[in-house]
């Protein structure tokens, strides 16, 4: 489903070169749960930006199914991105909209009829355990609940892949594990999960595939990996 083929990303700033990724190659199959780990600056966020088409590689190719992501035009990106749901560390919710409205907003932008929205959104919020709080504002929710709203929003289009970028970074231990359980459940329902994290405890408990980055290079790729950096 996802292929990075000899991908390098070099940034130029103030006459200096900064290598974010250096000849990175890996494949992710449909329905896998893959964690990308590494210290800050290892290249995790760069991989995400290249996969979503936010940036283009300096060298190499990025594929997502039948798409060659680095060749997509700006006008083609919105349709392509419907295949990917992204969950961020800082939630990125609209503070003046309820949980229901934050999730439904994605469908409204795409022109989905209101009747269909009214059917789909409660189902997804129920899946993440928030059906009874769908009309609460983000300020009325705990950090874990806000992250679950963000996950519901990422899932609403039934994307093939969910990218979770440090989704537990702002959460306490109890909510952290609730979010990981939810991602595992979504994976079992058929979505591919790409988890970017530096949380050693989570990685070592998952028992799933781990791609380890260091200084922009893949130094380890194990089917049932541990956090080693």
UniProtKB/TrEMBL annotation:
Keyword line: ATP-binding, Nucleotide-binding
Q: Which GO terms describe its cellular component?
A: plasma membrane
**Keyword Translocase in annotation:** no
Q: Which SMART domains match?
A: AAA
Please give one Gene Ontology molecular function term for this protein. Answer: transmembrane transporter activity
Family annotation (Pfam families): ABC_tran
Please indicate if the UniProt record lists Nucleotide-binding as a keyword: yes
InterPro entries named in the record: AAA+_ATPase, ABC_transporter-like_ATP-bd, ABC_transporter-like_CS, ABC_transpr_LolD-like, P-loop_NTPase
Which ranges carry the ABC transporter domain? 2-229
Record SUPFAM superfamilies: P-loop containing nucleoside triphosphate hydrolases
PROSITE patterns linked to this entry: ABC_TRANSPORTER_1, ABC_TRANSPORTER_2
Q: Which PANTHER family match?
A: CELL DIVISION ATP-BINDING PROTEIN FTSE (PTHR24220:SF470), IMPORT ATP-BINDING PROTEIN (PTHR24220)
Entry's family note: Belongs to the ABC transporter superfamily.
What is the designated name of this protein? ABC transporter domain-containing protein
Q: Which organism is it from?
A: marine sediment metagenome
């Amino acid at each position: 489903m996802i292929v990075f083929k000899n991908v390098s990303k070099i940034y130029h700033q103030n006459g200096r070169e900064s290598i974010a990724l250096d000849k990175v190659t890996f494949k992710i199959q449909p329905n896998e749960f893959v964690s990308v780990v590494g210290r800050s600056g290892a290249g995790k966020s760069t991989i995400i930006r290249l996969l979503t088409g936010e940036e283009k590689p300096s060298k190499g190719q990025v594929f997502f199914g039948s798409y060659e992501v680095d060749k997509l035009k700006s006008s083609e990106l919105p349709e392509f991105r419907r295949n990917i749901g992204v969950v961020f560390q800082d939630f990125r919710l609209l503070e003046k909209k309820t949980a229901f409205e934050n999730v439904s907003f994605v469908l409204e932008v795409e022109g989905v009829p209101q009747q269909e929205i009214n059917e789909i959104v409660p189902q997804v919020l129920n899946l993440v355990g928030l059906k009874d709080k769908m009309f609460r504002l983000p300020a009325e929710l705990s950090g874990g609940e806000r992250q679950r709203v963000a996950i519901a929003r990422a899932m609403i289009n039934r994307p093939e892949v969910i990218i979770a970028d440090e989704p537990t970074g702002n959460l306490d231990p109890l909510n952290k594990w609730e979010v990981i359980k939810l991602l595992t459940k979504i994976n079992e329902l058929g979505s591919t999960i790409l988890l970017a994290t530096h949380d050693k405890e989570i990685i070592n408990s998952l028992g799933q595939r781990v791609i380890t980055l260091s200084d922009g290079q893949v130094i380890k790729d194990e089917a049932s990996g541990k956090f080693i950096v």
